[in-house]
Amino acid sequence: MRLKEAHMTEFDLLNAVWWLWCNQKISIGDIKFYVEDLDLELDFITLDGYKFISKDKKTTYSYDRKQKKNS
Questions:
Q1: CA 71 to CA 53: how far, in whole Å?
Q2: Nearest-CA neighbor of 41 among 21, 67, 14, 4?
């Protein structure tokens, strides 16, 4: 699978990969393999979110579904 050929934004692709991981459809090893095509590295992934960093360390993609409460 080549993610660059999916014609989706990086954010949409990473959200899809995260959803698949959360639903136990793919492993962390699979994620690392797939995002290599996008020149990204997995920083962390949990059920609450993820963080990917470009190999040149210039771009970060992250998602956190925890909401902060207004004080």
A1: 31
A2: 14
Give the separation between CA 41 and CA 50, rounded to whole angstroms.
Answer: 11
> Rounded to two decimals, what is the model's pTM?
0.77
Q: What does the alpha-carbon distance between residue 55 and residue 45 come to, in Å, rounded to a whole number? A: 17
**Which of these, 54, 48, 53, 45, lies nearest to 67 by C-alpha position?**
48
The pLDDT value recorded for residue 1 is 56
Beta carbons of 35 and 42 less than 8 angstroms apart: yes
Looking at the chain, how many residues does it have?
A: 71
Distances (CA, A) of 47 to 6, 14, 50, 64: 24, 14, 8, 9
